[in-house]
Structures are given as C-alpha cells and as structure tokens.
Design brief:
Length: 336
C-alpha cells in the first residue's frame, strides 16, 4: 500500500469513528450528518430547515463533543442586538478602564437557532463573522478560533414575526439542507434511547487534527470537466437562454453567484474525502447540487404562481445539463 493510500485509509477510519460516536446518540439523519461533516471539512457554513424536534441542536452539540471543540447555541429573538452576538466593551468602575467581553460567536461550532427571528442588524453582524472569521469591537479585531462553523436553523411552519434573510447573508451559507421526520422504525429507536440512560460521548479527534484534515481535503483532485460542469450549472441559472433553457428566464429573478460554483467544487472534494478518495467522481458533485443551489435561486412571481419551487427547477436544470461521464484530456476545454 502506498503512503497516499495509507493516509486515506487512516482518514476514512477516523471519520468512521467520529460518525460511530455521534450515532450512539443520533438515530437516522444520515444525509444530514454527512452534510454537516462536508461543511466542516470544506470550511463552509450550513443552513438547516426543519420542524422542531428533529435533533438539529443535539447533532451539532454531539459532533462538537467528538471533536473536542467548543459549542455555543444562540436562540435568535426579535429583541437580540449585535452585542449579544459578537461581544461588547464594558466599563469597570473600580479600575476606571474599559474591558472587552467577547460574545458567544467565539467558539468552534455555533448554532444559530431560528436565525430568521432576529432583526436585520443582528443578521448583518453575522456577515463579517461568517466570511472573515473575525470580529471588530471598538476598532479592535479579534480572530475566531479555528475550525469555525455556523449552523443556522429555520422553522418552515411558522413565518409570523420573522425577518427574511438578506440575499448577501444567505449566499454565505455553503449549503441549505432540508431535514425530514424520521421513519417509524427510527422513531421507535429514538424513544428507546431517550427514555433510558444516555450514552457517554467520547472525544475522537482534536481541533488540530481537524484543521489538518481540512488542509488535506483541499488537496483532492477535481477534473477540469467537473469544474466546468459546476460553472455551467451555475451560469445557467443566471443566463438560461445561453444554455438552451429559454423557458427558465421568466421563472428566475436572480440566479446563483460564483460562490455556488466554489461550494460545489469544495463540497465535492469533502464528500469524496469522507468516502476515502483523493479524487472527485461526478456523483460526489451531483449529490450536492440541490443543497448548494436551492437557497441561492430567487424565483419569480410566475414560478410561485405555477406552484414551482427551487428544487423542481434544479431537477430540470440537471436533466438538461448532465454531468460528464468521461474525464477530459489535460489541456482540453469543454465546449460552452
């Protein structure tokens, strides 16, 4: 076995141990768990939509425990202010000096619960945190710990009293994952586990090991054909007529930004890495397309009137622009 193969076998074994430890407590939700791991490895952020009670918070908290990382949960409410998120300067009457108190964003895994219930100024405070991984308080910059992941949740069944997320912020989430109810069999196991003594979760990896895995993940090979496929998909949401989809133009107000192309490539690398490979296959990328694109497409009134949603348009888009079946020769450029 070569050094590279031994390294990937070691990585796959570590990932398997992490997932095994998480699954001591979490039942089902395999795709959700996989997407969380992809986001961590690709250093992206995750937007999760699902009704209450589906173990979204528990999943992230358990994962943080297996990675020896810090975990904070912020319940977003209409009375929240930016200082509650990033921290503030506090005056000490005894010393007559100001001191900086850092907010709950200074952690490794941050869960922003019901993010759309906070006003726009609080949501905007997350922009620098998510993009720059730093916070500025009174002109002083504070770096966040690494690795850092924001997982934000939205409740799809209650929209009264909520504030729609700005497009600039939504675009900073690498993926939007939809979490569904468990099957009856899974729910039975959930009830059995919750009503007995909870298992003890052990730390499997350190944050330093995770940082090394993130660096290793970025070395994964992506064929030029797959990169071109990602770019074609994303560009087709902005200029559908150019890619043979003129009927899409009235259905989309805005398409996806170049961040979507980057997220597809980085996410496919991470998914391949999770599966023990240092190269990306077409299915690694196609599996992530709905999660990467669904929150970046702004549908027109016509599309909404026809009862369409982003996922339906993505299916049609992927049918029209198929993934490459054969790798391109080095230096060869696929036709537009």
């Amino acid at each position: 076995m070569s050094t590279s193969q031994a390294r990937h076998a070691e990585v796959a074994a570590l990932m398997e141990r992490i997932l095994y430890e998480v699954k001591k407590l979490i039942v089902g939700q395999d795709q959700f768990l996989e997407r969380v791991m992809v986001a961590i490895l690709a250093q992206g952020h995750l937007l999760v939509e699902g009704v209450p009670g589906l173990a979204k918070t528990l999943t992230v908290k358990t994962l943080a425990a297996t990675l020896s990382g810090g975990f904070r949960r912020i319940q977003f409410t209409p009375d929240l202010v930016p200082a509650d998120l990033i921290g503030n300067r506090i005056y000490n009457q005894k010393t007559g000096e100001f001191s900086t108190t850092l907010g709950p964003v200074f952690t490794h895994l941050l869960l922003a619960d019901e993010i759309n219930r906070a006003p726009a100024k609080v949501q905007s405070a997350l922009l620098e945190v998510m993009q720059e991984r730093q916070v500025t308080i009174a002109g002083e910059t504070h770096r966040l710990p690494a690795p850092f992941l924001v997982m934000a949740t939205q409740n799809p069944i209650e929209t009264e009293g909520t504030y729609p997320l700005p497009e600039a912020q939504v675009d900073r989430f690498m993926m939007k994952v939809l979490v569904d109810y468990p099957t009856p069999e899974e729910e039975l196991v959930i009830v059995q586990r919750v009503t007995t003594e909870p298992p003890v979760i052990s730390a499997i990896a350190t944050t330093d090991q995770l940082a090394a895995l993130q660096a290793e993940c970025r070395k994964g090979f992506v064929e030029p054909a797959l990169m071109q496929y990602a770019v074609r998909l994303v560009c087709a949401t902005r200029e559908p007529g150019r890619y043979g989809l003129p009927d899409f133009a009235p259905l989309l107000t805005f398409g996806a930004s170049p961040r979507a192309s980057i997220s597809l490539v980085e996410g496919a690398r991470a998914l391949a890495f999770l599966r023990g490979r240092d190269y990306v296959l077409p299915e690694d990328m196609t599996e992530l397309v709905p999660d990467v694109l669904r929150h970046r497409l702004v549908l027109s009134y016509q599309a909404l009137a026809e009862g369409l949603d982003a996922d339906a348009l993505i299916v049609r888009l992927m049918q029209h622009i198929p993934a490459p079946q054969k790798a391109l020769e080095p230096g060869h450029v696929a036709p537009a």
